[in-house]
Write a structure and sequence with these properties.
Chain lengths: ~230, ~90
């Protein structure tokens, strides 16, 4: 009798031990399953809610359900709802992938091409007397060549830039350079019937010398006209 | 007779104490109506996340009712109501 009681107690203890351990292992497995599902859910892209709102809402709801059961230690219910949550999360991931595929990386736009330098040239021989803007007879040879070219190539547009030497005030030289540029334009328009719209003029005064203003020769070179081709 | 009165008072007190966590099929019906109103207002297109979220939380609430867990049923039911109201508001 005594030994059978002891046997009964032993069996009871053993079964408690066995069931207790199994229960702890199950709880751990449930918790682990839930964490795996949650990990996948948290890795969904930021736009998942907008991309797949129906699937996202379902996954969120299922996860909330499992979370609630776990917080109350309703292990059997948690175990029941985890597969549903897992399936909902995976469906959401698939829907997001299908509806909003990640955009291929767009190559950065190529750098803009370097600006094409517009051909600039000094028409040799167009010089002016000191403090004058009138075309000298010696300049006419060069201007006739320029006029002929502009007649031949009617699409060519130019900008005529007038320059002075450093003699005189800046303001005066500015006006003088503009008058020189306009004087050349008038010559081309009058003598070669060049459309005035094809010629712009600008004066730079003494601001852009090409030679030394301390010498007579240098100042003569600085009193010049420069052509810039703006359209070919 | 005195015993009956005491029992009734105890029942009433228990009902009041647990009242906060009581969630009934009538509550479920109230949220369902709200969801239907939102659907009629076009929530499925205009506020899809809120609309489906309301449906999901209501489904959770029903599950909890089935498990006789009034507390969680109420918690999910209230979430469902809030989302349904939001969906309706966004669809107007």
């Amino acid at each position: 009798m005594f030994s059978s009681k002891r046997l009964l107690l032993l069996m009871l203890g053993l079964s408690l031990l066995v069931f207790g351990c199994t229960s702890a292992a199950t709880r751990q497995a449930i918790q682990s399953d839930y964490e795996n599902t949650l990990r996948v859910f948290n890795k969904l892209p930021a736009n998942a809610k907008d991309c797949a709102p129906q699937e996202y809402a379902k996954a969120e709801g299922r996860i909330a359900h499992v979370e609630e059961e776990l917080s109350e230690k309703h292990w059997s219910y948690a175990k029941k709802y985890i597969p549903e949550a897992d399936e909902a999360v995976r469906k959401t991931a698939a829907a997001v992938k299908r509806k909003c595929p990640p955009r291929a990386k767009v190559a950065p736009p190529p750098p803009p091409p370097p600006p094409v330098e517009k051909p600039t040239f000094v028409l040799e021989g167009i010089t002016f007397d000191i403090d004058k803007a009138t075309i000298r007879p010696t300049s006419e040879v060069t201007l006739k060549e320029a006029g002929s070219v502009m007649q031949k190539f009617s699409s060519v547009k130019v900008r005529i830039e007038g320059h002075t030497d450093s003699t005189g005030s800046d303001a005066y030289n500015q006006g003088l350079s503009e008058r020189r540029a306009n004087s050349v334009k008038d010559y081309l328009v009058t003598n070669f019937s060049i459309d005035a719209g094809r010629i712009d003029t600008v004066g730079f005064g003494e601001a852009k010398p090409i030679a030394d203003n301390k010498t007579k020769e240098g100042r003569a070179q600085n009193r010049r006209i420069q052509f810039v081709v703006t359209a070919q | 007779m005195k015993g009956w009165r005491g029992l009734l008072m105890l029942c009433a007190a228990l009902y009041l104490l647990g009242g906060c966590a009581v969630y009934t099929p009538r509550d479920v019906k109230g949220v369902e109506d709200l969801i239907n109103q939102a659907a009629a207002a076009g929530a499925e297109k205009k506020a899809p996340y809120e609309y489906y979220s309301a449906k999901e939380f209501l489904s959770n609430a029903k599950d909890e009712l089935g498990e006789a867990d009034d507390k969680n049923a109420k918690m999910f039911g209230e979430k469902a109501r809030a989302q349904a109201e939001k969906a309706l508001q966004m669809s107007k």
